[in-house]
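Why predict the complex rather than its parts? Because the way molecules touch one another can change local conformation, and only a joint prediction can capture that. The input here totals 674 residues.
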Amino acid sequence: MIRFEPRGPVPVSRMLAVSVAAALAALMLAAIPMAFAGLSVFEAYGLMAKGAFGSLFAFTEMLTRATPLILTGLAAAVAFKAKLWNIGAEGQLYAGALAAVAVGTGLVSGPAYVLIPLVVLAGALAGGLVMLGPTLLKTRLGVDEVVTTLLLNFVILLFVQMMLEGPMQDPMGMGWPQSEPILDEAALPKLMARMRIHWGLIVALVAALGVWFLLKRTVWGFEIRAVGENAAAARHAGIPVTATFIRVGLLSGALAGLAGVGEVAGLKGYLTADLSPGFGYSGIVVAMLAGLSPVGVVLAALFIASIFVGADSMSRATGVSNYLADLIVAMALISVLVSGLFLRFKVRFVGGPAAKEAAE
Amino acid sequence: MTEILDILISANFWAAALRIATPLIFGVIGALVCERAGVLNLGIEGIFTAGAMAGWMAVWLGAGLWGGVLVAAMAGAFFGLIHAILTVPLGLSQHVSGIGVTLFATSLSYFIYRTALPDVSSPPRIEAFKPLDIPLLSDLPFIGPALFQQTALTFLALALVLATAYVLYRTPLGLAIRAVGDNPAAVESQGLSVYAIRIGTVVAGSAIMALGGAFLTMSAFDAFFFGMVNGRGWICIALTVFASWRPGKALIGALLFGAFDAFQVRLQTEVGSFIPGQVFLMMPYLLSIAALIVVARKADYPRALLVPYFRGQR
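Output of the joint prediction:
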């Protein structure tokens, strides 16, 4: 029989080891579907590595893909830290993108140092407000936020489609459901000439630092952790639990909204209803792989981004479906859940001679 | 007003309502069974997708229709087993594990479909279930067209509601399932294994969920499409709360939902020129949220829902 014995505080080195082990486990498990698709495993990983790191262009593409993943990863990490199960980052991302487009396509005009902050703020605010609804429903009425945030993802995507086919459609867009392009002064500048990598990455890294500081060094951060560990005990200790949930919800939604801002104002330049290939859901995997640590989120986002970019490139070379990337990411989540056990517990196999000795 | 009445008294409308409700009936019954044993199964969205893909593919590869249904159920059971192992003996977060199972089941289904059919432009079709034409009964006015133009899977769903209610409330097994969802320590003290009951229930519930997916590709449509489940799984999770974890209420909830959905589709043809189509498409999701809000105050959750149980620990 297997017994789990709780361990004390977890050192960072062991947390890192667990995440790396989970990532490796996912890559090894992926050999099964690869073989099913008739791929040579080493060749496939070679192609993926080349696709994500093989050239300066590949590397910047990987960083470009990591940008929204860092932000949605932070959104999930900060919410999960308080055990607020925000699974709605996908919808909040679209809300942020929609707000960015609403503000950035001519509603206001001005120089870049006015427009860019305005667009970023609008996106963050929209994402935060979208998460405020489920948070209030949870704190006021006890409605489970998992289901409401999941369902809102569909509602918001439909709302975006409605706006793109209606009031916000680009009159010059030949009837395609897309928004007008973001003004040049409102667009996040590129980081390198002739590459797609943009200032959204800096925003994401600053956000990671900010969340780290908040969680580790401020009273609000302490309250978030306390509520996550035991909401009832936190309430008993005088911590404002409801206010903490609302703060966390606003912050989590805002971070996801920023991911949408980056994609639309930094990368695409205009909004379509297929802006995100599930960045909101992948963000959950990023957060779990990171052990909910903000610095870990950056590393985990780089890993997941290289899987996605590498698999795209491998798929182009071999014709094997790039759904393989989603599969590896899903297996990484399950692997990290299982390996997390080794983090929190010592696993003992009891019932052997040792147990008998102990019984005597 | 008369248009609305016309809709409500047409047999076609009620036939559509029952058709829309069928996958939800499977989904809610499956989710309800798992939650009665204390395990929230957010893998449902992925299990729907897996059931839809596996059932369809089995038939496409040459199995009979009922063979396809069986394969779908087995696919659901497989993913249910993963969720059960992660959440019951390992005691991991049911939320995160469920999302993980959904991501895994969805991406695996898509990957297998794409690998088996690398470059098809239009999804291949199968010979789907046909409406059961029962002589005499089908000719009854109103009820005949509404009830007896459904496929065998709809009748299976209705039968499952009865069977689930019977098992849960009239058998020792049902008592044990409800008890592990309310007070697992008491079950253990009776010499029963909480783990075995919970794992078995989650596996069975997941197999039932997968039939909802199979209905989509083998009865409602005759092909598999990406994104075809489209949140139906999450809607079922909301309906489970709405139904207070009771099979009879689950049936009523799913039927109400189906009726509302069928109604708004018909309303759309009346007023569609004034209101964008997306407003109507949002309705099922908004309605689910509304259903959750309505029952939130009095929801009587199984007491050990989401609480992992560890042997010999109080």
